[in-house]
Known about the structure:
Shape: globular
Number of strands: 9
Low-confidence stretches: none
Mean pLDDT: 91
Structural class: alpha+beta
Strand content: 35-45%
Radius of gyration: 14 Å
Amino acid sequence: MRIPRHLRYTWDHEWLVVDEGDATVGITAFAAEVLGEVVHLRLPDVGTWVEAGEICGEITSSTGAGTLYAPATGRVLAVNPALADDPGVVNSAPYSRGWLFRLRVENIAGALSADAYAAHCAHVRGEYR
């Protein structure tokens, strides 16, 4: 499983990258693999205020539904329009075309480095180091 080093991660398997105060948010390849084929997304509306660690959406897949948590506090600037027609892009390109939303960041709490996230995934899979 590929874990891009330039991104930050959450315990709940979201990723974010911040550029000049704006963050792009998505779910990790690990989450996409565990969820299975994504068939529907409920994302926060543009203009919505989200709080880090709070529920901000839902991901429905072929195996069930998962909760989407905000990886940072801030106002939603945009949602990925491509996902309305093809939510499966989250599975095929979770770190690029499958981004979920963009956020004007006010606070990031507890973001993990790529190494810390890799260790977390290994622990979740039962691959203790």
